[in-house]
């Protein structure tokens, strides 16, 4: 294998059961001796086989046999283990092209130029690359869409808030997935609010307060009367950054209904413990986590 072949790093994949996937530890905690620890990602490729999961560990360099054995030991049910260099067209490379459609479960985020990529059954979200953040290519947006896709297989939501909406991509995805829900989307940046308004039009989703529509507000965190008037939410999504996510944890926890779900992203893996800790203080406990590269997506619920 030449160095060029492995320029994108290496991946170890294995099949495992749901129990092992959900028990996946923080790699830095279990292997504090590793200078450059791999990032781990677990996925359930087929919702009809809920006990068949796939774990992928991403390494900068080819892992040696000892490291492979240590990773495998974290997944007692592991079978079909393979180690291989990452191919050229990996997700990161794709993301940098910035115009390619991005698929996350049933969601397909695409620009107008790629409408032909939409397949029957897709929840297609037309988003142009522009001034606001959120064209689907970033790992955090992708992670949130995957979380919404998984939640959509298990439960319904009626009252949704998307904080730090950027282009509106996640609010649109949620509103299209749960068509009877009322959704409010907010951003601290007035440009994002304007971009989201245009994206609602492009995606034929009405702006407004009733079911099936998205209300837009400019706000820092939960600091807007409308955000409180519409609470409690059964689903809150917030893809911001670790600092603001911690700052708003108390408000977000108060605005979430007991049993409601919170999807958080924008934090780095190294910040996950702190963010989870802040939310745990306010009665929110993790029910899921997945990760692409350094960007985890946390799924929490408020203890009923
Ligand atoms: N939700 C989109 C955009 C995420 S980028 C997506 O998933 O792709 C983060 C967004 O949060 C930016 O648009 C930024 O303007 C906004 N933001 C940053 N700090 C914020 C805060 N304190 N309150 C609300 N929005 C904030």
How is this structure best described in words?
It is a single chain. With about 300 residues, the protein is α/β, with parallel strands linked by helices. The chain is built from eleven helices and 14 strands. The strands form three sheets. A seven-stranded mixed beta sheet has the order 10-9-8-11-12-14-13, sandwiched between helices. It is globular. The model is unreliable at about 1-5 and about 90-100 (pLDDT under 50). Bound molecules: S-adenosyl-L-homocysteine.
Number of helices: 11
Main sheet: strand order: 10-9-8-11-12-14-13
Question: What is the CATH C level class of the largest domain, in words?
Answer: Alpha Beta
Distance between the termini: 54 Å
What count of domains describes the coordinates? 2
Silhouette: globular
Associated small molecules? S-adenosyl-L-homocysteine
Structural class: alpha/beta
- Give the beta-strand count: 14
Mean model confidence by pLDDT:
89
Helix content: 25-40%
Order of helices and strands: EHHEEHEHEEEHEHEHEHEHHEHEE
**Fold-level CATH name of the largest domain:** Rossmann fold
Please state the second-level CATH architecture of the largest domain. 3-Layer(aba) Sandwich
Spell out the CATH superfamily of the largest domain: Vaccinia Virus protein VP39
Relative strand content: 25-35%
Radius of gyration: 19 Å
Low-confidence stretches: 1-5, 89-98
What about the largest sheet? 7 strands, mixed
